[in-house]
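SEQUENCE AND FOLD
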Amino acid sequence: MADLKSIPDDVKWRLAAQCAARLPAMYDVVFRPVVKENYDELEQEIWVGLAKLSLEIARSLQLPVKNAQQIAESMRTVNTILFGPDYKGEMIEVGDDGAVIVVKHCPFLKEGSVIGAPQNGTFRRCMAFALTSQKDFNPKYASRFVRAMCMGDRQCEIKVEAEKAEENKKVDKGTS
């Protein structure tokens, strides 16, 4: 029998990430029928909380977040760390200060389909996590989903760009 030390780290990481990616779908299947219409709101709070961990990881690794390209690349890096090696994406520069995170493989969709969970719940989780992470990384930037695999698109695309000047002034003054 193999002991833990004899199992390669990449195998352990892949298996742990597979388990973690399956959990949201399992919770959805079990708790949505009980919690009903409150499920989405409650679950989003969990993913917003998880986004705080992404900021801690980015800070601990000293990942840069000063412009759209740095934010997008740092988000992609942290997402791969959190969601495992099956999370496949890239960052594409758009203009002077814009970027798009392109996700070509989502472990949450894969693992959710294994247990027959509906894929439309994946978007709410991902949106809560991604938008909160990006704002935590740098509140002078905004992000929005352009495409989403869980909504039927071929790949996910999350655009990151600087907020408009008027909105930045509100953030700087401490108003919303």
